[in-house]
Structure formats: C-alpha cells, structure tokens
Amino acid sequence: MNPYDNRYTDSTSYRNRRSDLVGSTPPMVPSMIGGASSSYGRGGPAYNMGGRGAGSAFGTAPTAPNYKELPPFMPPPGGFDIGRGGGASQRGFGGRLGDGHDVGRRGGGRDRGGGRGFGGSAGFGGGRGRGGGRGGRHGGSSKDDLDNIALPKQDFRNLVPFEKNFYIESPSVGAMSDHELMAYRASREITVQGHDIPKPIRTFQDANFPDYFLEVIAKLGFVEPTPIQAQGWPMALKGRDLIGIAETGSGKTLAYLLPALVHISAQPRLVQGEGPIVLVLAPTRELAVQIQEEAVKFGSRANIRSTCIYGGAPKGPQIRDLKRGVEIVIATPGRLIDMLEAQHTNLRRVTNLVLDEADRMLDMGFEPQIRKIIGQIRPDRQTLYWSATWPREVETLARQFLRNPYKVIIGSPDLKANQSINQVVEVLTEVEKYNRLIRLLKEVMDGSRILIFIETKKGCDQVTRQLRMDGWPALSIHGDKNQAERDWVLAEFKSGRSSIMTATDVAARGLDVKDIKCVINYDFPSSLEDYVHRIGRTGRAGAKGSAFTFFTHANAKFARDLIKILQDAGQVVSPALSALARSAGSRQFGTGGNFRSRGRGGYGNRGHISGSNIIPLGSRKPW
What we know:
It is a single chain. By secondary structure, the chain is an alpha/beta fold. Helices cover 29% and strands 13% of the residues. It contains 19 helices and 18 strands. It has helices at residues 30-33, 143-148, 171-174, 178-187, 211-220, 227-237, 252-265, 285-299, 315-324, 333-341, 358-363, 367-374, 392-401, 433-444, 457-469, 483-495, 528-535, 559-568, 575-583, and strands spanning 42-43, 51-52, 104-106, 109-111, 190-193, 242-245, 278-281, 306-309, 328-331, 352-355, 382-387, 406-410, 421-427, 449-453, 474-477, 500-503, 516-521, 545-551. The strands form 4 sheets. Strands 5-12-6-11-10-7-9-8 form an 8-stranded mixed sheet, sandwiched between helices. The longest helix is centred in the middle third of the chain and has 15 residues, at 285-299. The model is unreliable at 1-70, 79-139 and 586-607 (pLDDT under 50). Keywords: ATP-binding, Helicase, Hydrolase, Nucleotide-binding, RNA-binding. GO terms for molecular function: ATP binding; hydrolase activity; RNA binding; RNA helicase activity.
C-alpha cells in the first residue's frame, strides 16, 4: 500500500478511491476475511443521499504480500469504502483505515487495533482519527463513552420567534357534523386526547399540502390517508406537540415527514455554519436509512436537503453533508452525539423534533443520549413522539419533554397484533425446530420473501449456514455485520435475488420490504412487544400475511399473554399452547441447545461479506 498517495489526504477524492490504491488482492478466503473490515459511505448531494462512495479498506498483515504474484482483484458486489483515521480491526490486528478509532467486539470483550491512522496516533485504539469524535465500535462511541460526554450548555435567552401553525381547515372537513366525526373515528379506531383537537381529514387534498406533494403521493399509488395520517396531519400542522401511537406499517413515517417539510418551507433559509431545522431520531441504522429514502422522495422537489447520520459507516461523508448544510438530519443517538461533541454540527436551528420508535429507543438504553440531545434544542420547539406501544417508561419521558400535547391512538392502546396476519404458534422442543423449519419452507416457498427471526447473532449465523448448505438461498443480517454487508443483504432481499433472510431483532422495527409473504419466529423473542413488531413485517399497508412461531417450554412464561394477543386478533389458539399456559405457573423450564447461544459473538465484521453469508449454496434445490 502506498501511504503517500495524495488521494488519501484529499477530502474531495472519496468518490474516486478505487482498488488501484492498494493493487490487487487475493480472493477472499476465510483466513483473510477476518483481517479486513469495510463499510459504505453515503455520498452525493445533500438533497439526494442515495449515492454510495467507493473504495477499499484492508487490515495490515504481519508481512506484506507480493501483489505482483496475486490474481486479479475481483471486488464484491457494491464495492468497498475507505474511511479516515486509525481504526481497529474486528479480529484484533491490522489497523483498519476506518473513521476514528474503532473498537471491535468479539464474544464479550474488545479487540484492539494495532495500525496507525492518519490522525497521527498509533495502535491500540489510542487517540483520535481525522474524522473526529471518539473511539468506539464502527468509529463511534461506546455507550459508556457517550454517557461521559458533556455537551456544551446552550443559552436559550433571546430566541428568535418562529412560525409553526400552518394548518388551514378545508371546507369539506369543516362541514363534518359531530355525528360524521364520531362515525369516522370509530370506523378507523381513532382515539384522541387533548383540547382544541382538529377534525381528521378524509382525502389528501383536505390537508392543503403543496401540489408537488400530491403528485408524489399519486405516483406512489396511495388512495387515501391511513388513520394515523388522517388524524395526525392536522395535529402536526397546527404546530402543537403530538404523541402518536399506531402499529407498525400504519404510515407513521409520512405522518410526521410531510408536516415537517411544510414546516421547513416556512422558515428562513440556512446560512453557513447552521445546523438542521428538523431532527428525526431513530433507534437503528436501517430505520434511519428508510426514513431518509422517504424524505428524499418528497424533499427533492422543494430543494430540501437531508442526510442520514448513523454508526457503522465512515464519518467523512456524513461530516461533509453536515458542513455543507442540510435542513433535515435523520440520526441514531450515538453517532449524533459524536458529531455534536466534535462540533461538526449544532442543533440551535432545530424547531421540529421527531422521536420515531420511541419505545424501541428506550428498550435499547438510549434514554441518557436522548436527554443529552434534547438539552441542545430550544425549548419552544415542536416535538412529535411516535411509538407503536405505550409502556410506562415511554409515557414518563413524554411527560417530561412534551408540553400540552395532542395524543392520537390508532386501535387499542394495549399491545395488539395486526389482524391482517394469520398467526400460527407451534409448541416444539429445541431439537425439533430446524427440521420443522425445513418442512415449513417447503410448504410456503414459492419465490416470495420469507423473513426468519432468530434471537441471537450466533444462532442467526448458524441457522443461515445450515440453510445454505442444504440448498436454501438464505442470507443473514444482525448487529455484528458491518454496514456494507447489511446494506447488501437488504438489497438482495428486497430485490428478490435472495428470497430468505434470517435476522435478529435489528430487523424487527422499521424494516419496510414489500411483499414479505411470511415471517417465521424460529426463536420466540424476549418480549411480547418484539413479537408484535416481528410479525408486523408482513401484512403491511392492508396486505395479507402469515406468521409462524416456534414456541418452546422455555418460553412458557409468555404463553398467557400471547394467547390474549392471538384471541384479540381473532386467531386460533392451539390446545398445546393452552396446556402450556395452564402449566406455566407451576413448573420451571430450562433452555435447550441446537442453534441457541446467549453470548454475544457471531461472525461479525469479517469483511464485506462474512460468516454464514459466504457459504456456497448446496447443489440441490429443495423446493
């Protein structure tokens, strides 16, 4: 590798980095895969964030290979990307050319990198890379580091007032009688709380959105607003704080994005050095990326720029977007705090704050980070708080940060599954699971997409490995996979090139893939909320779907509440599940083996495609 190539230090050249910087490389074999890690950057203009940077990242080997003797370089699908800074490789040696100092995880401990980054600090995770921010996994900070970061205290005196009420009631909505209003809300299971509540709209035209919004809506094929949109749009447009509770797949994303775009259009334009006007916080990278995809569809017509800030990807392109200026930032809390600490952006202009999947963020332990971020935002902002469930922790946080909010609930405030999904729960032993999975795949496999949830990362890789050896076109996704591989697996699954995807709960929220025919819970999740979210990946936007769940004696403590969810959704409860619920209080059950592991680990970050995803498909086609 030529460390003096000018392209390494040219901040404008990240699009042009290619494998010619390092010469050819041998084909990926297991012994080499462990020493490299890679990730995608997000490039392109700030208002069209779909582009990808290209490049390469390799760990240093103990001895330098003779590249002239190696076969030609064959890049994997999608390419690689070179970040900046001196990172740590997941395998513990090799100093990835990452963004900041990367601390990999394997098992329960940490691995330390030994390379020298361009930030000037050598080895073992010390110092800072040029991307800025602190060390941590994927160039970000660990949760312990984030808790110790002290962001500067903001002075909110002498704030410039801003406009946030943009709602104009259409004549047809104003003409609704009280009887019509009650009938409409009852037919769509809309429950509202608060004072001066606006009436729901019944057509897209009633919202008085700009014409180009309506054109995009028509192109997307939407016929009428979903219940959360019908009631949520007038509430959000009035500028009041809002709590929205609705099941997954109900259209919550557009329920807050379109009013946010209207809000941005009414504010003074950004000047150099100012941060975003709208901030959307999301719990996972996948959800953040999907939110931005929707923002681009509508915002590009109004020249409203957006960017996605999340860990697991190089900081360089993200920093450039922030420095260039964007009206919308969609971010995961950890990476955003890194950017704020390094002063790559600020939140002084934020007047519209969205917390999406707030219950999931609290489940993941993000409450301290959320409090830090909200402390940087002016108190007279508009805050919109979206959740699929309403546990006490979510209610407590909302009470502290929202002022005089509207509250809209679609369906029951209690945990409830989508009635469009046919749910089948089978009581099995651990050793019966895999054979039952194979029989089930033979029954349902017709080329449609099938999503299989597995509780642990290691179990996810093991099941995927076995499926591929048995000839099933499965790919896996979980938190130990680097962002490049996760993007690639999702693209393969969405396109149908790989019709089976196995996943941990990283895909349980926000994953919006059209036409998922079937969800299979190979392992029952650790909470009933996650069960509802998992099966919610099918049966979206009014479509029908099926969910099969393997339930063991180790899950007996969930049996009674699961039966209630099934009964509320009009599903058949098997006698075996009823018997297990009756016996759950008097017996203790242990866990079995066969593809189960409670430890961390898996096969993470072994290069662009890792672990189980590189296993060749078996020769026979079993369906």
